[in-house]
Write a structure and sequence with these properties.
Blueprint lengths: L8 E6 L7 E6 L2 E3 L8 E2 L4 E2 L8 H15 L3 H5 E4 L7 H12 L5 H7 E6 L6 E6 L4 E8 L12 H8 L13
Parallel strand pairs: 1-6, 3-9
Antiparallel strand pairs: 1-2, 4-5, 6-7, 7-8, 8-9
Length: 177
């Protein structure tokens, strides 16, 4: 089923880049990680989330994340930091990538209000983007394996992309196991 309904809350970090950082508890009714679990590549945006092979560490990590969402309702609070999406230049990139992955053409306002960014504690490159709808159902809409959507200022994300652009193994294979 790949949705769960236990322990249905998480803490979202607000004002991450200010001295007024706080945590806000949010509730949800279910999480779907299967519907859009797949890989895409966009050369113009220097983005890929393909992996080298089924044996690649990122693939194994994503498989474990997928499994944990299905079998462990506390995985959000134990394994992720949930951050708000803030207005910045990369929102257009996120909008484009979500549309490529899901077909959803969200407005910038919808992205800021309804997308939740889950940063994985055990691998600083992995970010999961979830859409929270009006029924408080959350659906995975994008997987960023290499921290390429909102790259850090001190990282050469173009070089990171160049190292990964020839990977061909699709994350959708996780759902077939």
């Amino acid at each position: 089923m790949n949705t769960f309904k236990n322990n249905n809350s998480y803490f979202k970090k607000i004002n991450k880049f200010s001295s007024n950082t706080r945590m806000l508890e949010e509730n949800f009714s279910s999480i779907n990680v299967k519907k859009y679990m797949k890989s895409i590549k966009d050369e113009a945006e220097y983005f890929t989330n393909f992996v080298k092979s089924r044996g690649a560490e990122k693939y194994k990590t994503m498989y474990a994340i997928y499994y944990n969402f299905d079998h462990d309702s506390n995985t959000i609070n134990r394994d992720f930091v949930v951050n708000e999406i803030i207005q910045n230049a990369n929102l257009l990139k996120l909008k484009k990538l979500i549309k490529e992955n899901t077909g959803m053409d969200l407005s910038i306002k919808e992205i800021i209000m309804n997308i939740r960014k889950f940063d994985y504690n055990k691998d600083s490159g992995i970010r999961l983007y979830f859409l929270k709808d009006k029924n408080n159902e959350m659906t995975l809409v994008l997987v960023d394996l290499y921290h390429l959507v909102f790259p850090s200022e001190n990282r050469n994300y173009q070089l990171d992309y160049e190292r990964k652009k020839d990977c061909k193994y699709d994350l959708k294979n996780i759902c077939l196991h």
